[in-house]
Amino acid sequence: MAETKQKKQFFTVGGVFFLLIVIPLALMAFLIANGMFKLGSTIKERAVNVIDQKSQDEIKLRAINTADEVASFLNERKKDVLMATILSANEAVYKQFVSENKKNIWTKEEGKIKQISIPLYTEMAFINKKGKEVIKIANGKTVAAEDLTDVSNPANTSYKSEDYFKKAKDLNQGEVYVSPVTGWYLNRLEFEKGKEFSGIIRFATPVFGKDGFSGVIVLTLDHRHLAKFTNQVVPTQQNQVLKADPSTGNYAFMVDYRGYIIAHPNDYHIVGLNSDGTTVTTLNAQNATELTQKGIEALDLFQLGFMDPNLPKLAKEAATGQPGLSLYKFAGRTKLVAYAPIKLYASNLPAPTGFGWIMLGIDVGKYNEAALEASKAIDKEAKGWTATIIFILIAAMILLLLIMALLVRGINRSLNAEIPDDSHPTFDDDDDDDK
Fold first, then answer.
1. Distance CA 218, CA 154 (A)
2. How many domains does the chain have?
3. pTM of the predicted model, to two decimals?
4. How many angstroms separate the CA atoms of 47 and 24, rounded?
5. Is 105 in a helix, a strand, or coil?
6. Distance between CA 308 and CA 330 in Å, rounded?
7. Residues whose CB is less than 8 angstroms from the CB of residue 337 and which lie 6 or more positions away in sequence, other chains included
8. Is residue 393 part of a domain?
9. Collapsing DSSP states into helix, strand and coil, what is residue 146?
10. Would you state the pLDDT for residue 417?
11. What is the DSSP letter of 150?
12. Domain that includes residue 338, residue range
């Protein structure tokens, strides 16, 4: 009888302990584990979208910043040519001007990457009002009088088709003509042999004296100073490189107001000139196969609808002078591209298009691979934390059960000590006897 009573007390106290502590703890364990699992799944599902949005914002901002840097650089060149109009027109002054205007570029020589300082301008010239060169500094040296030419005839210019004198002489004082990027076209075979595109941009403005128009002054910018703004950019990393690897699909390039590519890690995409001064034929739906076989792959974005209809649309949007984002396919890759206007305006470069625009592209496929790896890492981390929490809670429950057993046994012993087993309640029957 006493043993049955003790067992009943044990299970009563144990039941109360179980209901008040163990069950709530088990329920809490379940809710926490389930919450951690759901949190991991949610984070994993959202990881790609969150990273993608962040990447889009960053690449767009970087495109805008790069375009602004290019615009600032080119606007400084406009100021230079305007300042040159007040210089004394003589060889010594022009030589000094060219030698003092230098900037650094990175280059690779004998297998070593190093920074060198080179003149901004390959040429500086004063042309009289008839179009005859009077003073000319080329590559730091004075051009002999017998080698000076009449550039009013485009056929006599360096690239056999330039009309910068004609365009500049009709301008008002303080206006500047900015030529397109000009240089001989470099085909794919030449590029793969290690040759690089060599080009220029002419900045020309009229000079006025007491008797009115007296000539034109021209500064010729070395294309390398322009190309470095995009060639050294990898959109998916902050650090600059000597030249981006286009095979990765992550690189930047520059496009002018005509839709012509004027700076690109693959120089054979830059639209240059044939040996007779005519513009090289750009790829289009009709000639793409033939020209590609010849290694002629100059690109005009407005003509690339055969690759992806989004490319001409993208060029049209960029020409509005507003930054943006777009998707397109090129060389079998899906690319996310950010574009931003280069805000250089001149007599021949009106707003909103201006000089052109910068484009920064990311290979979406490779980006998704990276995002997937990130989501897998998040999933693994969430599962690890869930397993750890479950283990801790199970261990805690086992420990609490042991504690419960000890407590119940202790409580039973206390009760037994205070109420002995042989003690029974007694009742007084005196009232019955009196009756």
1. 15
2. 1
3. 0.76
4. 34
5. strand
6. 7
7. 314, 325, 326, 327, 328, 359, 360, 361, 362
8. no
9. helix
10. 65
11. B
12. 49-373
The SS3 call for residue 313 is helix
Q: Is the CB of residue 193 less than 8 Å from the CB of residue 115? A: no
Sheet holding 261-263, edge to edge: 261-263, 251-256, 356-363, 333-342, 324-330
428 contact partners, CB below 8 Å, separation of at least 6:
none
Q: Which helix (H) or strand (E) holds 417?
A: helix 364-418
Peptide bond into 119 cis (omega under 30): no
Contact 217, 166 (CB under 8 A): no
Distance CA 197, CA 183 (A): 7
Amino acid, res. 395: A
Say if CB 202 and CB 182 are below 8 A apart: yes
* Whether the predicted pLDDT of 423 surpasses 60: no
Both tokens of 391, joined, read 């283990």
What would you measure as the largest C-alpha separation in the chain, in angstroms?
160
Q: Is the pLDDT of residue 45 over 50?
A: no
Asked, for residue 359, whether it belongs to a domain, the answer is yes
User: In the block, which residue shows the tokens 């300042």?
Assistant: 83
394-399 long-range CB contacts below 8 Å, 24 or more apart?
Answer: 394/29, 396/25, 397/22, 397/25, 397/26, 397/29
Contact by Cβ (8 Å): 272, 185: yes
Whether residue 237 is predicted with pLDDT greater than 50 in this model: the reply is yes
What are 282's two structure tokens? 């750009």
Using alpha carbons only, how large is the chain's radius of gyration in Å? Answer: 40
Q: Is residue 149, in this structure, part of any structural domain at all?
A: yes
**Residue 80 domain-assigned?**
yes
Average pLDDT, the chain: 85
Q: Tell me the H-state helices in 85-135.
A: 91-100
Inter-residue contact 258 to 303 (CB < 8 Å) = no
What are the CA-CA distances from residue 245 to residues 66, 114, 155, 252, 381 (Å)?
18, 18, 37, 10, 34
Q: How many residues does the chain have?
A: 435
